[in-house]
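Page 37, continued from 36.
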């Protein structure tokens, strides 16, 4: 899970987490044919993307990794001399935090605007979504009928008292979901929903999304909130036990106000003081390309953001759902309010 940490401490942690070679590489001068990437994504699929980008462009990718708060703190402490060219994160709320700290600059690119729908990017081009994941429900079909969980309201209904598994309130995925509910319903109804979720918890929140899915399979709960790509990766991965869980547990895509399932994104933007700005824009355009979109979907089980790119296996089996059209840029500004509602309800 991602936890906020004090700014100074975050900067120290981020600096100490990087090897000397990476730290040196992150200072590559402008026009050097390099790209300095600050990324909060930690997937093998991304390494394949960076290698392909370098192969196609000759631009070397220097990678600094950390959680979003560490990277935001580092970029803030570096100020105008920051070598960061691109910031990547696995949630719209994290991208908003970087935007709110004035760490991202507007980017105008016809290629990006054509490839990435308006609701999956920041209106002024400070960041763009490059992959999607739905926050939905894993359920035991032996105990739950699909029509009992076809809306988000039903997750918090008395039908599921003590039968829901969910991760902690400080999960950015849960914060973004509740932020979306506030945007759609207002704080009163969203607060009632949060209270219903707390009343429905089969156990105190613990673990990540995979743990919630496994708990459904073990009979600890009947339903669980999860991101789609965790389930899809378990279903198609090499772990025999996890595959057995997904043979037993199914996915449901509840609808928000009859408009489809809540969708979050992974994405990125050009850093405010990017020394290699042209390379940064070129990298973002690459991430929106059909070739890169297909790699992310195939290797990390995320849904494509570019609607012109058909979903490849293994995500094609799950890609027929209706996605809610709400702008993902609405989630971040609502996260503080979401955290307050969740804390007040006892969602720990």
């Amino acid at each position: 899970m991602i936890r906020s940490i004090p700014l100074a401490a975050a900067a120290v942690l981020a600096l100490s987490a990087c090897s000397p070679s990476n730290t040196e590489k992150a200072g590559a001068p402008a026009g050097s044919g390099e790209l300095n990437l600050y990324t909060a994504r930690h997937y093998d699929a991304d390494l394949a993307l960076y290698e392909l980008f370098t192969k196609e462009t000759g631009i070397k990718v220097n990678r600094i990794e950390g959680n979003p708060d560490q990277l935001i703190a580092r970029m803030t402490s570096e100020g105008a001399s920051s070598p960061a060219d691109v910031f990547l994160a696995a949630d719209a709320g994290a991208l908003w935090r970087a935007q709110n700290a004035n760490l991202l600059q507007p980017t105008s690119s016809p290629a990006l605007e054509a490839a990435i729908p308006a609701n999956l990017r920041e209106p002024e081009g400070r960041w763009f979504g490059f992959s999607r994941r739905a926050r939905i429900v894993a359920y035991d079909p032996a105990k739950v009928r699909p029509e009992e969980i076809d809306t988000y309201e039903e997750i918090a209904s008395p039908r599921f008292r003590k039968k829901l598994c969910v991760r902690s309130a400080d999960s950015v995925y849960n914060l973004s979901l509740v932020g979306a509910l506030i945007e759609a319903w207002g704080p009163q109804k969203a607060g009632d929903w949060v209270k219903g979720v707390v009343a429905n918890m089969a156990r105190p929140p613990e673990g990540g999304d995979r743990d919630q899915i496994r708990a459904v399979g073990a009979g600890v709960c009947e339903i669980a909130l999860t991101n789609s790509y965790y389930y899809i990766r378990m279903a198609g991965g090499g772990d025999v036990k996890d595959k057995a869980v997904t043979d037993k547990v199914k996915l449901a895509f509840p609808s928000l106000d009859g408009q489809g399932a809540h969708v979050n994104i992974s994405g990125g933007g050009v850093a405010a003081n990017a020394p290699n700005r042209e390379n940064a824009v070129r990298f973002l355009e690459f991430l929106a390309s059909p070739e890169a979109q297909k790699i992310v979907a195939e290797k990390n089980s995320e849904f494509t953001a570019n609607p012109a790119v058909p979903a490849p296996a293994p995500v094609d089996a799950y890609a027929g759902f209706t996605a809610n059209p709400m702008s993902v840029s609405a989630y971040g500004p609502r996260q503080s309010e979401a955290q307050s509602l969740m804390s007040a309800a006892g969602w720990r």
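The CA atoms of residues 70 and 88 lie 12 Å apart. Flag for discussion at group meeting. The chain has a mean pLDDT of 92.
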